[in-house]
Target: Glutamate--tRNA ligase
Amino acid sequence: MSNNIRLRFPPSPTGKIHIGNMRTALFNWLVAKQKDGELVLRIEDTDQARSTKEFEDIIIQEMEWLGLDADEGVGIGGDYGPYRQTERIDLYQEYADKLLESGHAYKCYCTKEELDEMRQKAIDNDEMPRYDGSCRSLTEEERKAYEAEGREPVLRFKLPAEEREIVVEDLIRGDVSFSSSVLDDFIIFKSDGMPTYNFAVVIDDALMKISHVVRGEDHLSNTPKQILIYEALGFELPEFAHLPLILDENKAKLKKRGKDSVYIGEFREQGYLPEALFNFMALLGWSTGDEEEILSQEEIIDRFAIEDVNKSGAVFDREKLNWMNGKYIRAAELDRIVDLSLPFLLESGLVDEEYIENNRDWLAEVIDEVRTGVDYLSQIPEEAELFLTGIEFDNPEEAAEEFKGADVKLVFETLKIKMYEREELTAEAVGEIFKELKNELDVGGRTIYHPTRLAITGRGSGPEMTSVISIFGAEEIARRLDAALELAENN
RNA sequence: GCCCUCAUCGUCUAGGGGUCUAGGACACCAGGUUUUCAUCCUGGCGGCAGGGGUUCGAAUCCCCUUGAGGGUACCA
Model:
């Protein structure tokens, strides 16, 4: 399947991966899948101070969880490796040398302090902070003198002498043009021997034969610099597409550390379903245009087009994600939801391994009932609690009063009899029993339902009574009814 | 400061000159189902940032203003 369509997702492992990054990965994946191309996972770890292997593992793990499989890259291999930038230094060096030879780059010995001073002075004078090019034409003696001082040079890209327009042809935004005069001689190799982002990204994308560069809008302003490098090296330009950013509740670029965490791992740990997150992320900046928003992976791949992506930023709306996730939870195979819910139940202490072993079917019934009310699976325990613990009234005296009411005993006793009359106590059967109760007994609906619910669940509200009774079974219900009556007599 | 981008209900969006008294989804509100909560169904509230043009006719095209965001690092 080689049609020269190649995309890449190049995260830097300097933090846990969040919604913003993953949405970019998703869009790249979608284009690759749809155009029958390949997706490359490249790790941009040139920031030695902040990159860690641990974060790299997290990225891979979370992509896998969401089903965003790469065809090539770190952890997978391929013909264009290595795929970690720190393992590609020789390559960057090689192309940097070419630039040096062709006169497109030069060594700069200015220290960070000198640069900072220069920048500050410019800002103070209300001028644009740009590198002044003082090392542009150093003599051999000056160079030697600096080296004798022990200064480690950086490599700077030399801007074209003549001012010119640099046009980024963007699939989403159309042509965006920049004047070279707003750029300065930017650094392509750091003094620690690492390439800078703008340089490495060009070398990698070119050498890895990337055809489509799909990335966040925050990279748009850097693109002209990269285009200059492509040109200086005689590389062919890829297609560019700059995605709108995902914003936080304050409409600012999503931070790695916000009020509400947006790390992918936390969504997983809270019991969000990967397909729900997938669906939701796809709709951040893109839409099919018609009314249905619950879309399968296939439908999304089928209908996605990078050209249809929005230009404006999208606020991450957790409410909508919750709604969507709830939909998916209700629609999913019960078995799977049970498997995914068990760890939460275990953690809550409501059940233990042995209990699960012996009561899996019963737990499945409970979970099935309770899943209608949750947004994510970590909410299962609190919803399931009333099925898994004994009755405890918040206020026993008040409860007792409720049970002392006229006809309550009659209702309870009749209910018991009718339950035992049934072969199978399905929710439908219980429904019929309640109807009979209402018809045969001369009591109001409230007298039937409210005390019954209280006696059985200890609460004033909760899942539907017919389901609760069906799930517990006649015997347990009878016990609870009796206990309630007893409470009434003793208070 | 300078450069770039963006601008439709609170939020995600449809809309690419007339069919828009602007459609859908989430949230919210009301009603129905469930004599509870939730689910589910129905209905409602709510928006083209402002000002100029162009045009017989602008949410749609152009300009300005305003606002928001991004970039301007030996971060990526």
Notes: Chain A has a mean pLDDT of 91.
